[in-house]
Amino acid sequence: DSYSAAYDPRTPSRNYGPSTFDIRNNLVMSYNWELPFARLFGARRITTGWHLAGITRFADGTPVSLQGGGDYALTNLGLDYPTQVGPIHKSNPRAFGNQYFSPTAFASGLSCGYEVCGVTGSSPQYSFSGPGTINTDASLEKDTRLTESVSLNFRLEMFNVFNHANFLSSGVIGNPSSGQFGQATTVAPGRIGQISGKIIF
User: Fold this and answer.
1) Residue 180 and residue 177: Cα distance in Å, rounded?
2) Residue 125 and residue 164: Cα distance in Å, rounded?
3) Residue 198 and residue 143: Cα distance in Å, rounded?
4) Which of 13, 56, 78, 100 is deepest in the core (most CB within 10 A)?
5) CB–CB of 188/171 below 8 Å?
6) Does the pTM exceed 0.85?
7) Sorting pLDDT into bands at 50, 70 and 90, what band is 115?
8) What is the C-alpha to C-alpha distance for residues 9 and 55, in angstroms, rounded to an integer?
9) Which positions ≥6 away from 60 have C-beta within 8 Å?
10) What ranges make up the beta strands (E) of the chain?
């Protein structure tokens, strides 16, 4: 844990918590497999030099920023945090219309009608993490020797091979005054492919 981005000089102890870039769990696996076409079909120019490589990542999201605007806390620093009134229930935004957490866990809106003016809300700025990441990038590669000193490399690459919708933690709306409060609104790029070739000599 470390200090969060916005510092409240009136209550320094509240500022202790996850940093903006905190990722608690991050597993990255890389692999490279020489395809056994030559062993199965005989060593020929068309069957040798095939490789399948990839990188797969499973990671937690970064903390969600719970903060509004209007300076109702009268800090002159924009430290308008919501007040938590119930447990925070997170859900899969892919299955619940982009809703990541329930806004009913917090008092409605930010104003002097809902919050006492001059008092910072009870929720810390970063109290829970956003959506995680599941992603695989892979490539299929073929090296073909043309002469003793010249070879051809052909490569097919796919990013986000399984076209998994990875919602970004930075796109989760943590402003309780917003009509999209609790929704994950930004997603990482979907499947992208490219083909390349080069001559090595």
Assistant:
1) 9
2) 29
3) 10
4) 100
5) no
6) no
7) low
8) 44
9) 23, 24, 25, 26, 129, 132
10) 2-3, 16-17, 26-34, 50-59, 133-145, 151-159, 192-200
